[in-house]
Amino acid sequence: MKYCSECGDRLVTHQLAADAREYDYCIRCAEPRIDHPSVMLTCFLSCGQKLLWIQRKLEPRSGFWAIPGGFMERGETVAAGTARELWEETGIRLAPAALEFYMTGTITFINQVYICFRASVASEDCQPGQEAIAAAFFSREECPWDEVAYPEVNDSIRRAYDDLERGSFGLYQAEMTQEIYRLLPISTVGYSRV
């Protein structure tokens, strides 16, 4: 950050108390301005052996396919934000309580934290929202792998297909830096699909 998000004044570097790190600081507001990570919420929604995808309307990667998701908004729980994003992008309305935690992850070079849920529906009925060109359920074989918006995370998507086919879902932690990507199980004990 170069400018204060509250007053627009130029930020300076500053040390806070005994912390050795330097932070951005607004002299006019007399407040630190810390660039916290944004929180991305996604949902692996299944119908039978298929997962729900959207074709992105917005940049980046307009026209490419992705798992539905978006940024958490102020005042939301992670489940409520995920349910809202699902509704906005696909027209599928689920109660936040219907979502089950599935994966979490960090992408350090874009300063994002990901929280992924999973859920299932009995019908493939969906409608693309304002941020999507199309919305559709794809089996692993039908998935447009050459048109995936973020192929860097295909391991997570393949894991979701694997768990779906097995009918048992683990919990996972993904870590992505400029140098590495790894998807690790949080728990070795899976739980069965309800």
Helix and strand layout, with pairings?
Layout: E1 12-15, E2 22-26, E3 31-33, E4 38-47, E5 50-56, E6 65-66, E7 69-71, H1 78-90, E8 100-107, E9 112-120, E10 132-138, H2 154-166, E11 168-176, E12 181-192
Parallel strand pairs: 4-9, 8-11
Antiparallel strand pairs: 1-2, 2-3, 4-5, 4-7, 5-6, 5-10, 8-9, 11-12
List keywords for this structure.
194 residues; mainly beta; Nucleoside Triphosphate Pyrophosphohydrolase; 2 domains; 9-stranded mixed β-sheet; 3-stranded antiparallel β-sheet; 2 helices; 13% helix; disordered C terminus
Description:
The chain starts with 11 loop residues before the first strand and ends with a strand. It is mostly beta strands. Strands 4, 5, 6, 7, 8, 9, 10, 11 and 12 form a 9-stranded mixed β-sheet that branches. The protein has a 3-stranded antiparallel β-sheet with strand order 1-2-3, with no helix packed on it. Strand 2 (22-26) and strand 3 form a beta hairpin. It folds into 2 domains: 1-35; 38-192, Nucleoside Triphosphate Pyrophosphohydrolase, CATH 3.90.79.10. It is elongated, with a radius of gyration of 19 Å. It is built from 2 helices and 12 strands, in the order E-E-E-E-E-E-E-H-E-E-E-H-E-E.
